[in-house]
Amino acid sequence: MPQLNPGPWFFTMMLAWLTFSLIIQPKISAFTSTNAPLNKTHTTTKTSPWAWPWT
């Protein structure tokens, strides 16, 4: 079964994983969010029970 042979693809997988973890991931982590979340007070809405017409 040739799909179980890791020989031709193992090096490609490791190279892609190392590229992501050593080069791309630190650059992505360095970005700062432009819209930081604000501490807003949560307002609760007053709900009223439904007036069913048949009760």
Automatic annotation (TrEMBL):
UniProt keyword Mitochondrion, yes or no: yes
Signal peptide: none
Keywords (A to Z) from UniProt: ATP synthesis, CF(0), Hydrogen ion transport, Ion transport, Membrane, Mitochondrion, Transmembrane, Transmembrane helix, Transport
TM helices/strands, residue ranges: 6-24
Domain of life: Eukaryota
Entry membrane topology: Single-pass membrane protein
InterPro entries: ATP8_metazoa, ATPase_protein_8
A GO cellular-component term linked to this record: mitochondrial membrane
Gene Ontology terms, MF aspect: proton transmembrane transporter activity
Compartments (UniProt record): Mitochondrion membrane
Entry keyword Ion transport: yes
Biological process terms in GO annotation: proton motive force-driven ATP synthesis
PANTHER family per record: ATP SYNTHASE PROTEIN 8 (PTHR39937)
Family of this protein: Belongs to the ATPase protein 8 family.
Protein name from the UniProt record: ATP synthase complex subunit 8
Origin species: Halcyon senegalensis
